[in-house]
Design goal:
Strand 3 and strand 4 form a beta hairpin. Among the domains are: 57 residues; 30 residues, no CATH class. By secondary structure, the protein is α+β, with helices and mostly antiparallel strands. The radius of gyration is 14 Å and the shape is globular. It has a 6-stranded antiparallel β-sheet with strand order 1-2-3-4-6-5.
């Protein structure tokens, strides 16, 4: 099964809006009442060329972070993913081997990356939902 088909089945079942473009798939996940978080899903390979799924959700701009150590402490609390910096953005990332990914593990990974990025956004940047 193609990754896009896999993600589409999960998104439909969860009621998450989904859009695809050249940069990957984006799913808008409800994290709590009145708040959503966008998770980007990209297929790639690890160093040994095994197929991988990479999840990314942006929390905010790195220049607005006052306490980088607090980001690392927050990252240690996460069961799924870690806090990372990509270009000038702070977010939460997670990786899964395609061979080990099933619907349950991918759904949970997407949700928990979204929730962690939303919590990070609220803690580090204020309660405004920036998506």
């Amino acid at each position: 099964m193609q990754l896009s088909d896999f993600v589409n089945r999960i998104a439909v079942a969860q009621g998450w809006p989904l859009r695809s473009d050249a940069s990957g798939i984006r799913v808008e996940v409800g994290t709590q009442p009145g708040r959503t978080q966008v998770v980007q899903i990209i297929q790639g390979q690890d160093a040994e060329q095994d197929p991988m799924v990479f999840l990314w959700s942006t929390a905010g701009d790195v220049s607005a972070v006052r306490d980088l150590a607090a980001l690392m402490r927050f990252s240690m609390k996460l069961s799924y993913g870690c806090v990372a910096i990509r270009e000038r953005e702070v977010g939460v990332k997670h990786s899964l081997r395609m061979a080990a990914a099933d619907e349950l593990s991918l759904r949970k990974s997407i949700f928990y990356v979204a929730r962690a990025a939303d919590m990070l956004e609220a803690e580090a940047y204020g309660a405004i939902d920036r998506q």
